């Protein structure tokens, strides 16, 4: 009993500081963003529906993978009600800033590039008006039609200078690995507006995007979750070996919602192969792990559990967590990570980095307004 009480006191002490949550899924209802589309697309939707690719796999939880208690009191889909989000997440956990990451990435798998561009713009306008204008703690992500880099750059230039838009976001499902020079116009625009390029798991194997594994499509949702690090790994190697970080040295890339500890062995492998094979890519000047530390950040959810505390500490060191790891809750999804329970006990300096400072540095957010915060 004494151990339990001590741990509870430590948890309360640790969480008296406010935090930054880098992955909050606000719901973007199609019937609402429809009003932001050009008349021609609204008419087409009325006649033939949305024509957007859908998910291939069953998800856990209720209402397509949401927490059972996340439905707003007045009804509606989880993540759709700002007041309820304040009550359930922002206020009790003293979220100083929350990065909204949306709920529907299907336009990024559409073969109709112009339609994808229109839907992306509509999502951005809806987010600005219905979310960012109503709570100064919330920051937004610029949705782009990433399958068309020219139109993507145009959208970044259109809304990327807004002070509440803090990153560009794409699904990990893609036609080409993201290091390919095809995407350079996007990175040029990101650098110009000082916006990180965030890759969020979703849409692998859907629409025009490639399969979710190199061996083809998987059958079940647990397999799909297991394949997420494989897709992120391909994107990360592509960024490094295609020389993106040499061409765009200030570009920051975020790997979101694919876990983190798998990166330890992967970075070891990348470094070892670079030593033996770098004659093929002479433009890669540094060890891959050095590019990772300087240009890549990783969100915590879902962080892989370890068999014991010592292994956890070693894995945190192996992925350079003090520099790269950022807390996220994934609210309101069924695998929500409470800031009270998401990670084992961290020392003060590391806690500060993971739960606040790494994200503040990445997104250009100010220091806490006060030292008070955390869960009651």
UniProtKB/TrEMBL annotation:
> Which InterPro entries would you find in this protein's record?
ACMSD, Amidohydro-rel, Metal_Hydrolase
Name one matching Pfam family. Amidohydro_2
Task: Please give the organism.
Answer: Paenibacillus alginolyticus
Has keyword Cell wall biogenesis/degradation?
A: no
- The protein's name: Amidohydrolase
Q: Which domain of life is it from?
A: Bacteria
The UniProt record lists the Amidohydrolase-related domain at 28-365
Alphabetized UniProt keyword annotations: Lyase
């Amino acid at each position: 009993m004494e151990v339990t009480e001590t741990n509870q006191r430590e948890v309360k002490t640790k969480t008296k500081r406010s935090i930054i949550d880098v992955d909050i899924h606000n719901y973007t209802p199609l019937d609402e963003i429809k009003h932001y589309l050009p008349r021609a697309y609204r008419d087409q939707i009325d006649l033939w529906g949305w024509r957007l690719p859908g998910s291939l796999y069953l998800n856990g939880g209720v209402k397509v993978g949401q927490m059972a208690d996340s439905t707003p009191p007045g009804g509606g889909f989880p993540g759709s009600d700002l007041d309820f989000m304040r009550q359930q997440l922002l206020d009790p956990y003293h979220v100083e800033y929350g990065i909204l990451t949306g709920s529907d990435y299907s336009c990024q798998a559409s073969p109709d590039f112009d339609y994808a561009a229109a839907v992306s713009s509509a999502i951005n306008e809806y987010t600005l008006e219905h979310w960012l204008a109503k709570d100064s703690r919330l920051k937004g992500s610029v949705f782009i039609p990433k399958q068309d880099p020219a139109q993507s750059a145009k959208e970044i230039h259109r809304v990327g200078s807004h002070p509440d838009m803090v990153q560009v976001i794409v699904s990990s499902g893609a036609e080409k690995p993201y290091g390919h020079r095809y995407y350079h116009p996007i990175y040029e625009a990101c650098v110009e507006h000082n916006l990180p390029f965030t890759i969020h798991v979703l849409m692998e194997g859907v629409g025009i995007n490639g399969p979710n594994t190199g061996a083809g499509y998987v059958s079940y949702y647990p397999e799909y979750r297991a394949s997420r690090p494989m897709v992120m790994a391909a994107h990360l190697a592509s960024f490094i070996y295609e020389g993106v970080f040499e061409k765009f040295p200030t570009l920051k890339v975020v790997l979101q919602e694919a876990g983190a500890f798998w990166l330890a062995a992967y970075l070891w492998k990348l470094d070892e192969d670079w030593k033996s094979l770098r004659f093929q890519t002479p433009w890669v000047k540094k060890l891959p792990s050095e590019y990772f530390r300087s240009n890549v950040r990783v969100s915590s959810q879902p962080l892989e559990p370890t068999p014991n505390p010592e292994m956890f500490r070693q894995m945190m060191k192996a992925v350079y967590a003090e520099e790269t790891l950022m807390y996220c809750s994934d609210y309101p999804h069924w695998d929500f990570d409470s800031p009270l329970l998401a990670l084992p006990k961290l020392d003060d300096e590391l806690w500060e980095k993971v739960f606040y400072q790494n994200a503040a540095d990445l997104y250009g957010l100010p220091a806490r307004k006060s030292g008070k915060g955390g869960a009651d």
